[in-house]
Amino acid sequence: MLAYFDPQPERGELPARFPSPFRGAPHRIARRAAEELARTLGRWDLDAPGAGKMFGVLVVEDGAGRIGYLRAFSGMLDGRWEVESFVPPAFDAAARDAFWPAGEAGLDALSARIEALEVEAGPLRRAIEAIEARQAAEAADLRERNLAAREARHAARRAGAEARELLALERESQGDRAGRRALRDAHAAEREAAAAPLEAIDGRRRALEAERAERSRGLLERLQDTYELRDARGERRTLRALFAPAEPPGGAGDCAAPKLLAHAYRAGLRPIALAEIWWGAPPATGGRHAGRFYPACRGKCGPILAHMLGGLGAEPPPVFGAAPGAREVRVVYEDEWLVVVDKPAGLLTVPGRSGALADCLLARLRARYPGAAVAHRLDLDTSGLVVAAKDPATCVALQQLFARRLVDKRYAAVLEGAPRGGDAGVIELALRVDLDDRPRQIHDPVHGKPAVTAWRVVERLGGGRTRVELRPLTGRTHQLRVHAAHPLGLDAPIVGDRLYSRGEAGGAGGAGGGGDDGDDDDSGLMLRAVSLDFAHPVTGAPLRLTA
After folding, report:
1. pLDDT, tens digit, 9 for 90 and up, residues 465-490
2. Rounded to whole angstroms, how far apart are CA atoms 324 and 343?
3. How confident is the model at residue 425 (pLDDT cuts 50, 70, 90)?
4. Per DSSP, what are the bridge partners of residue 293?
5. pTM for the predicted model, two decimal places
6. Which residues pair with 72 in a beta bridge?
7. Contact between 470 and 379 (Cβ < 8 Å)
8. Residues annotated as part of the active site
9. Which residues of 9-34 are buried (b: 16+ CB within 10 A; e: fewer)?
10. In the CATH hierarchy, which top-level class contains the domain 320-404?
11. pLDDT tens for residues 381-391?
12. Top-tier CATH class for 408-547
């Protein structure tokens, strides 16, 4: 289970402290372990649609000072929780086996009873559908006869019928109304009699479903309590406590990273570095590609790893939203209605959701223009032009220009590599948020929102990098960054992108990406909003602004 490096790495090749698993590019020693693991994964059939899986490696030091690594997979592999040469799951298998098979059998029995009631209800439902169809036909036939009789009565009245005839016609009309009421009452009584047995069955079914849901919740809570989630000091926390007051998401604790740390602590091994790599076919919703490294997911693993890394002296996770020491905001254009500024990288456009990150472009603008409101946004790491209105009416007009795509926006970017597709083109990849790893966005052709980017090469630089111009024709979150990095887009991430860096497994899925120790590019994200071209929302005059 523990594979040792041969030759053993020098101490200088190891990180000074445990790198954050939430960074995109792993440390080089973890990359080396992942490359060795990747060479063994061909034995598993992972290329069928939806069969791909996240694997992980944890570089560790044993009691004798030897360096090796552990291997894990997310969830189950080949229908099994435990597979030779991989670490076991993070839950206590013996504790789980003491109640889970019997509990699962009980749920299966309830499901079988519910299914039997559904089978029993089938003929009753079909009988009711037949009754309703027949009743609808009878009601339609009666309506037609009543309409014909009414037309005949109208014709008789128009022809000047005598008083005695008119009285007979009125009685006929009353008889028609009484006939309709009688038919409605008879139909209702028939439906009620037919529905009574079905309602009794549905009542028993709902009671069984409620019992199954309650027993399932209890079983899940007991299951969650079997996870051995300790930190480096030996302090144990339950899965539910880590996610409280919310419920743990499905699959929490079953990702590769918690499994690896749990086993390392059980075996008395010191964790050194971790990496997670996708292998096989991408998931149905996209966002994962064979041979690529990915940071630990924040949705399922954020609270778990924050606890399990305690006492290890690990690097803090990257904070997406912090703006330490952001430069001053420079005014590019101003009139009595609006102001255009050059936002520096590292400054939020609007305050963070938590309220902890109050410094932002909007706050700085309002210190100078009390009624200011931004008409659009740039990512934290993106620099360049932002338009703000000085009054609400101008803000609404500006937002309408952006919504109607009447603002020509152009960005300059430097790519890590050559773009796929030649010298120019258009990218159309629908995007949505990665629910397990916010704020990352992923390509999802089924549930994503349309996202379109035009691009062209401006200059081919040294070191394999490329300067490009990007024109977003839609305005999705992280659109340019995902369209640049995605294999179906330019397949060349923007330099300094800490969310979508390439992170490929060298020797397994391509050339290695990122620095030796996995740090972000010193230059930051090389993406800048360099020009805006639109008609002034008040005067109508053309504005062409550049940074």
Report:
1. 999 999 999 999 999 999 999 989 99
2. 14
3. very high
4. 277
5. 0.67
6. 56
7. no
8. 379
9. eeeeebbeebbbbbbbbbbbbbbbbb
10. alpha beta
11. 899 999 999 99
12. alpha beta
